[in-house]
């Protein structure tokens, strides 16, 4: 017998209904009841899609109004005491305060409390909210939302599989906020609450609970590994069937542990851990269910169903028992559906499978394993698409391969070491101590987005579009001049997304009309699809940047997205090594850097926020990845002279363990996110004695909360404890695209004032 299911489904809706409802709620245009109605309608629609696709369960508990980890913070009753909740506030209002720092856009400067820290979910581009733990943290069953959603699904006649983030992964993903204790010590307090949840779910009529423990794919300290067996021995007493789910990485030394845990089934990532499928099929006791992640839940290519069937039949020969099939991980990481993508070339479209199509592929595999002829037509169509992609002439470009092969050995090195470059740059720019700048983007108003959309639809002439964007650039430059910012940006009004904008101008990329994926909260991105060799046909940013520079005497930064971030935030071809694709992108960006320098732009920022998230989850693979990733960055940056200053920007990742490699990128200035973590990350840069200049973010741009000048002064004083004043820059955590103008102006004014205050004493 074959059972098919999914570990999770996209939350936003086919038309991003949840995004727009959230933003209307935050603006005060709809109340909480109206928002809850949107959530309920989306859940019902998505469960019906799963049922219509023939899935044996619908998955309940994967929905979130902001983030599933934040859901668990409320479910487990561990909202941090620092928020000062009285307990009588509505749960949804508290939830958005955890996520955003204030419950609405009207918070006064400095009011409320900073939001929970946000960082990347393993090696994906999804951001989760980080739980906070102290020795006093207590847990309780404090939120009914999960159980209400189960009742919703049952009332609609669905067979339910509930999903929980496992207790060890929940603790692992959090942070200690007090010295002298380890969060693993809280496990004994946490487990009884999980037992209560499982008992409640069983009483509701839930037979299976998927309990996600993705940390089993990591290099775990002994105390964490040893905690699994006693923890799950306790949870097994709940009476509900537990499906332990792992994903994103091979199990390796944790393979035997995962197989022997007292659970009723084990899900493994058959894409990322393909080499372990045979061993697990052999090791896992026959009375336990094996759930095989047979479809790639993180990429958009149509599956080779013939290859999948060959593997599944081999597993069946070893295990004469039930086999469950699923995507490798939650489908949160792929767009909703290929349906409606009529603007895509028909051949390219035939190569793709998004979330809805992956559900259909599961059904075909189930039918084929049962010998049902109803699968034959779908198998033939799949076979034709796979052969089309392999044979397509559009995938390869001999000129790109020849250029890579001809690169000299030192192509990724600047002409001079950093001290010589720093002297040349200081002489050229004459910046004050603690120079101020921003990360790149400024607020994108409805007018900007409307003009850009009209231009794309052909409803706005090119000349009119250019005038509209130049007007906005002039406004942004004037605002920065008035605020007294030292190094300016043009604000990026012409850019829809920091990756999509460049991908649209590079060969080897294609784009969807509605291939949106959640990044965090209401923020969605539309990743490009890299289907072939990459090159730059023409300049991409030079005209906008030089126009902005013509409006001011102050230095204007050229703003580019780096090769690794373009790679990580795209859906990447899987028919050649990622390192090769990264080098192709790097050479395209290098061409743009050289053109900017030749046009007189002396400061160029190459953003690489995704360097850390691309790091393999297993340390043994780090060296190889970091070698080619940092080389790709240097390739993009090393075509310029000493007096041209190269910046890079990184955010919302933990960098402490790769600081030597970050230093090896050899950017003249790095800007990083540090405000949510209270400059915690900066201590590691200080201890490492990071050799180049650094700009720690002094306010959190993901929250509408405006920090006071005094708060920013305090953060900068902490920064000065570890970074020499001559090497310190002052900037926000990230770009300002998602913020509104009033809060942006207030925060930047406070930032400039904080820098000026400290110049008097630094």
Largest sheet: 8 strands, parallel
Judged by helices, strands and strand pairing, the structural class is alpha/beta
Number of strands: 22
| Count of separate DSSP helical elements | 27
* Termini separation: 71 Å
Q: Can you tell me the overall shape?
A: globular
Q: Give the helix proportion (percent range).
A: 40-55%
Spatial ordering of strands, largest sheet? 1-12-11-10-9-8-6-2
For the residues shown, what is the average pLDDT? 94
Strand composition percent: 5-15%
Radius of gyration: 26 Å
Query: Unreliable segments (pLDDT under 50, ≥5 consecutive)?
Result: 103-111
Brief description of this entry?
The protein has 762 residues and is α/β, with parallel strands linked by helices.
Describe the structure.
The chain is an alpha/beta fold. Helix content is 41%, strand content 12%. The strands form six sheets. The chain has an eight-stranded parallel β-sheet with strand order 1-12-11-10-9-8-6-2. Strand 9 (241-245), helix 9 (255-260) and strand 10 (265-269) form a beta-alpha-beta unit. Helix 26 (709-720) packs across helix 27. Mean pLDDT is 94; it is low at 103-111.
């Amino acid at each position: 017998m074959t059972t098919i299911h999914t570990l999770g489904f996209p939350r936003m809706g086919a038309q991003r209904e949840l995004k727009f409802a959230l933003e209307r709620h935050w603006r005060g245009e709809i109340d909480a009841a109206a928002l809850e109605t949107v959530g309920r309608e989306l859940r019902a629609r998505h469960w019906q899609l799963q049922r219509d696709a023939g899935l044996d369960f619908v998955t309940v508990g994967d929905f979130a109004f902001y983030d599933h980890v934040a859901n668990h913070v409320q479910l487990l009753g561990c909202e941090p005491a620092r928020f000062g909740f009285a307990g009588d506030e509505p749960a949804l209002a508290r939830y958005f305060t955890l996520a955003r720092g204030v419950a609405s856009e009207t918070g006064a400067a400095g009011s409320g409390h900073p939001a929970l820290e946000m960082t990347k979910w393993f090696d994906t581009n999804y951001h989760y909210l980080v739980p906070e733990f102290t020795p006093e943290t207590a847990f309780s069953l404090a939120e009914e939302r999960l159980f209400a959603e189960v009742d919703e699904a049952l009332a609609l006649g669905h067979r339910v599989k509930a999903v929980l983030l496992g207790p060890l992964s929940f603790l692992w993903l959090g942070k200690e906020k007090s010295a002298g204790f380890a969060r693993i010590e809280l496990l004994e307090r946490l487990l009884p609450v999980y037992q209560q949840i499982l008992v409640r779910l069983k009483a509701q009529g839930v037979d299976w609970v998927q309990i996600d423990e993705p940390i089993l794919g990591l290099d775990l300290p002994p105390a964490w590994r040893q905690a699994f067996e006693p923890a799950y021995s306790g949870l097994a007493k709940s009476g509900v069937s537990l499906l332990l789910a792992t994903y994103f990485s091979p199990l390796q030394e944790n393979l035997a542990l995962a197989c022997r845990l007292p659970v009723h089934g084990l899900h493994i990532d058959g894409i990322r851990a393909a080499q372990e499928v045979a061993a697990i099929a052999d090791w896992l006791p026959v009375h336990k269910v094996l759930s095989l992640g047979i479809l790639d839940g993180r990429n958009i290519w149509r599956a080779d169903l013939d290859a999948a069937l060959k593997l599944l039949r081999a597993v069946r020969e070893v295990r004469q028992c039930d086999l469950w099939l699923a995507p490798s991980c939650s489908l949160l990481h792929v767009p909703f559906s290929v349906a409606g993508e009529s603007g895509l070339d028909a051949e390219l479209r035939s190569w793709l499978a998004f979330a809805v199509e992956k559900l259909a592929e599961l059904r075909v595999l189930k039918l084929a394993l049962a010998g049902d002829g109803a699968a034959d037509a779908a198998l033939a169509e799949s076979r034709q698409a796979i052969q089309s992609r392999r044979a397509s002439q559009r995938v390869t470009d001999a000129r790109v391969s020849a250029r890579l092969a001809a690169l000299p050995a030192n192509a990724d090195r600047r002409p001079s070491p950093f001290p010589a470059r720093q002297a040349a740059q200081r002489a050229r720019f004459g910046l004050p101590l603690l120079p101020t700048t921003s990360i790149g983007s400024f607020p994108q108003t409805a007018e900007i987005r409307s003009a850009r959309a009209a231009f794309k639809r052909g409803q706005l002439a090119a000349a009119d579009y250019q005038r509209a964007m130049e007007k906005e650039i002039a406004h942004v430059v004037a605002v920065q001049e008035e605020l007294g910012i030292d190094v300016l940006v043009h604000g990026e009004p012409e850019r829809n997304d920091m990756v999509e904008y460049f991908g649209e101008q590079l060969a080897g990329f294609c784009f969807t009309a509605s291939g949106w994926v959640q990044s965090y909260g209401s923020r969605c991105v539309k990743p490009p699809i890299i289907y072939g060799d990459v090159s730059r046909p023409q300049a991409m940013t030079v005209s906008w940047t030089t126009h902005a520079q013509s409006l001011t005497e102050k230095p204007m930064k050229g703003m580019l997205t780096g090769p690794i971030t373009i790679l990580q935030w795209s859906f990447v071809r899987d028919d050649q090594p990622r390192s090769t694709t990264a080098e192709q992108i790097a050479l395209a960006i290098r061409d743009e850097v050289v053109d900017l320098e030749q046009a007189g732009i002396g400061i160029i920022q190459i953003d690489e926020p995704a360097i850390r998230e691309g790091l393999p989850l297993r340390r043994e693979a780090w060296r190889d990845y970091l070698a080619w990733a940092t080389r790709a960055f240097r390739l993009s940056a090393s075509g310029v002279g000493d007096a041209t200053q190269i910046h890079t920007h990184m955010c919302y990742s933990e960098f402490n363990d790769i600081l030597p490699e970050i230093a090896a990128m050899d950017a003249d200035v790095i800007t990083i996110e540090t405000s949510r973590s209270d400059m915690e990350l900066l201590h590691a840069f200080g201890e490492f004695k990071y050799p180049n200049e650094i700009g720690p973010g002094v306010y959190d741009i993901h929250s509408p909360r405006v920090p006071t000048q005094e708060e920013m002064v305090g953060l900068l004083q902490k920064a000065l404890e570890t970074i020499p004043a001559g090497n310190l820059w002052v900037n926000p955590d990230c770009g300002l695209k998602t913020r509104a103008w009033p809060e942006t102006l207030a925060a930047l004014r406070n930032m400039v004032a904080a820098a000026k205050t400290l110049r008097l004493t630094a």
